[in-house]
Design a protein that fits this description.
- Helices cover 47% and strands 16% of the residues.
- By secondary structure, it is of the alpha/beta class.
- The protein has a single domain, classed as Rossmann fold (3-Layer(aba) Sandwich).
- It is globular, with a radius of gyration of 16 Å.
- It starts with a strand and ends with a helix.
Length: 147
């Protein structure tokens, strides 16, 4: 079986690349998908619909355009990895976790132990909590193996 793994969350570190590289090293049967990870492109996703001087309406349009991609990719994934970093609040990642939960999609959270408390509900619905990309790779290795 080939698995589709959706990578959600912070975009300011190389955690995605580490997971994808680890999966490649183990030759795991995984296709990775993700939201747009270029911050400027994501923020400008709705600009094609007309420029807005009000930041709220620009963000509103761009979030709707971005959600076309994220909703479809989450619906099609077998499992999601949801990363919460320490530099910014990732409300979008929390939303993705809630969406996964509502759809019955399993997900693994990836974050440091210093934000356990604010993520307690998100972690409670997760199938696992990992602290490193390497742990995620080991979980993926286990769950995608034939034996």
């Amino acid at each position: 079986m080939n698995w589709t793994v959706y990578l959600s969350g912070e975009i300011h570190s190389d955690w995605r690349q580490k997971i994808m590289q680890g999966a490649k090293e183990y030759d795991l049967p995984i296709e990775f998908t993700s939201a747009v990870t270029e911050h400027e492109a994501s923020d400008a996703a709705g600009d094609v619909l007309g420029k807005d001087k009000n930041a709220f309406w620009r963000d509103h349009k761009s979030s709707k355009v971005n959600s076309i991609r994220t909703k479809n990719l989450i619906q099609k994934c077998d499992i999601a990895i949801i990363r919460f970093g320490d530099k910014y609040k990732q409300w979008n990642a929390a939303f993705d976790a809630g969406y996964c939960s509502a759809l019955g999609k399993p997900y693994i959270t990836l974050h440091a132990d210093d934000i356990i408390h604010p993520l307690k509900e998100v972690d409670a619905a997760a199938m696992a909590w990992a602290q490193t990309p390497e742990q995620v790779v080991e979980l993926l290795k286990y769950t995608t193996s034939d034996s």
